[in-house]
Structures are given as structure tokens and as C-alpha cells.
Specification:
Layout: H1 8-12, H2 61-79
């Protein structure tokens, strides 16, 4: 009958696992980027970022969200012409992924 509380916001902003945890930095999810490492320089645990939980009881909305993202990206790419904001930063051999 005991309750267990998981502090997901605290985990996802922990300075033990993230460099500059309060800063918006999408590069931290790119494994080739230096910010993807822990402050100690190691590899982060897979459950440091759990927007849909994990394991056998992963959120059933995860698949729905991923499919909506694919569909929205497809519709947007067909509806608009996109260009890079910083021209000259990237070329055909060095595109952002």
C-alpha cells in the first residue's frame, strides 16, 4: 500500500546527468555532440530522458505521437519551402541531422 513518487522533472534536469540542465539545447540528444555526455564525460543512462516512460509499460501514446510527427512533417514539407537560417554554415557534405 505504499506510494512511490518518481520525480521525472527532477531527473530530467539533474546536473548529475546533464550539462547545463536548465538550458534549451537539442544538441544534447545527438550522440556525436559533446553536450550528449554527462558533466563527468560519461554516457548518460537511457532513462535520464523519459517523456513516454520506458520498458514494458511505455506510454501507448508514444506510437501515436511519433506517427503524428511524421505526418505533420510530411504535410509541412509539402506546403512550405524551407531554407537554412544561417546560409554558408552548411553545405551538401555537412547538413544538419
Amino acid at each position: 500500500g505504499e506510494k512511490i513518487w518518481m520525480d521525472f522533472p527532477g531527473l530530467q534536469k539533474s546536473s548529475l546527468h546533464w550539462q547545463n540542465p536548465e538550458k534549451f539545447n537539442p544538441d544534447r540528444f545527438d550522440p556525436s555532440h559533446p553536450d550528449s555526455k554527462t558533466p563527468a564525460g560519461g554516457r548518460r543512462h537511457q532513462y535520464c530522458w523519459v517523456p513516454f516512460s520506458g520498458g514494458k509499460r511505455v506510454c501507448f501514446g508514444k506510437t501515436f505521437a511519433e506517427n503524428i510527427l511524421r505526418m505533420a512533417t510530411s504535410v509541412l514539407s509539402q506546403s512550405f519551402n524551407f531554407e537554412l537560417a544561417e546560409k554558408g554554415k552548411y553545405d551538401a557534405d555537412n547538413l544538419p541531422m
